């Protein structure tokens, strides 16, 4: 699932290409993606609106439109947003493709199976399209009044943004202390405690700070908490610089992979030697609150 760095990458991409364009029409072969009412109403309501800008809140993309509406896209498990020029496939075109990129030289969208499943298309005033590709169709799309953004049920409970200036060590501690008896991995991933962190980054943060994923926050010493706070910012920022993580389905708005999967220290490295200098541990996988956690058997010992 796309986490903070991936959603940030997508949002910056949208801001680069789509600001000021008008949404002229919408198409979908899976109207259930839109959860804020009937698809026909959604279509009627969004047509003719201008894209003002995009922003991120936790793992949500928020696209602010003219005349006070906001389009929310949560990419969930396998979704990603792309921008390009697509045409509907004809009978003899590539099998498995309903839509094809017009520019066949653009190699990535053509060869990457994760980019084939376009289920929602916004036709823009410059002849391009903003599309939602989603293999498993779990993504969530909503349209609501911009002035309700702060109070919207999908948004108001979310915890602070870990890369905001206001997210100090004190705030970080206060948030995690709310679930001090939970395994720390589960607490880090809880969107109401801290926003935007999921499976990949919680594993990498805990590896970096030398904390076992099932350690309770109440049992972690001050020094390690500081390390975890610093690691959180460092790792999320590093992934943003690399264009996010494409271990799985995530692609940027041009259908290209990010680079963070190439620098994993622990995530999905089960059985591999630890990457920490002079550590002799092995990457181990356990289940924590239904999610898999990867950690080093030596420098992330349970205390
Ligand atoms: Zn280690």
CATH class of the largest domain: Alpha Beta
Small molecules bound: zinc ion
Structural class: alpha+beta
- Helix segment tally: 7
Mean pLDDT comes to 95
Question: Can you give a write-up of this model?
Answer:
The chain is 24% helix and 22% strand. The protein is globular, with a radius of gyration of 20 Å. It has two domains: 4-151, N-terminal domain of MutM-like DNA repair proteins, CATH 3.20.190; 169-296, Helicase, Ruva Protein, domain 3, CATH 1.10.8.50. The chain is α+β, with helices and mostly antiparallel strands. It is built from seven helices and twelve strands. Helix 1 packs parallel to helix 7 and helix 6 (199-209) packs across helix 7. Strand 8 (118-124) and strand 9 (129-134) form a beta hairpin. The longest helix has 20 residues, at 222-241. The strands form four sheets. The protein has a four-stranded antiparallel β-sheet with strand order 1-8-9-5, with helices on one face. It binds zinc ion (ZN). Residues 274, 276, 279, 281, 296, 298-299 line the site of zinc ion.
């Amino acid at each position: 699932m796309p986490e903070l760095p991936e959603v940030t990458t997508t949002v910056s991409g949208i801001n680069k290409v789509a600001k000021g364009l008008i949404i002229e029409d919408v198409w979908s072969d899976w109207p259930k993606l839109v959860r804020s009412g009937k698809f026909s109403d959604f279509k009627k309501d969004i047509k003719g609106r201008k894209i003002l800008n995009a922003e991120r809140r936790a793992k949500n993309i928020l696209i602010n439109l003219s005349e006070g509406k906001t389009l929310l896209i949560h990419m969930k498990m396998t979704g990603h947003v792309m921008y390009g020029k697509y045409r509907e496939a004809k009978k003899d075109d590539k099998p498995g493709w309903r839509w094809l990129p017009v520019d066949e030289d653009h190699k990535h969208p053509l060869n990457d199976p994760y980019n084939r499943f376009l289920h929602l298309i916004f036709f823009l005033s410059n002849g391009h399209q903003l599309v939602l590709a989603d293999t498993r169709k779990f993504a969530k799309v909503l349209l609501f009044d911009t002035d309700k953004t702060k109070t919207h049920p999908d948004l108001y409970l979310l915890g602070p943004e870990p890369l905001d200036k206001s997210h100090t060590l004190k705030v970080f501690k206060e948030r995690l202390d709310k679930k001090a008896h939970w395994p720390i991995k589960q607490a880090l991933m809880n969107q109401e405690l801290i926003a935007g962190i999921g499976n990949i980054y919680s594993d990498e943060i805990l590896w970096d700070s030398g904390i076992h994923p099932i350690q309770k926050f109440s049992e972690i010493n001050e020094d390690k908490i500081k390390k975890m706070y610093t690691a959180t910012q460092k790792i999320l920022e590093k992934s943003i610089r690399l264009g996010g993580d494409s271990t799985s389905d995530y692609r940027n708005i041009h259908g290209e992979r990010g680079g963070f999967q190439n620098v994993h220290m622990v995530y999905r490295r089960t059985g591999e030697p630890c990457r920490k200098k002079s550590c002799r541990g092995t990457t181990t996988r356990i289940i924590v609150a239904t999610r898999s956690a990867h950690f080093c058997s030596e420098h992330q010992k349970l205390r």
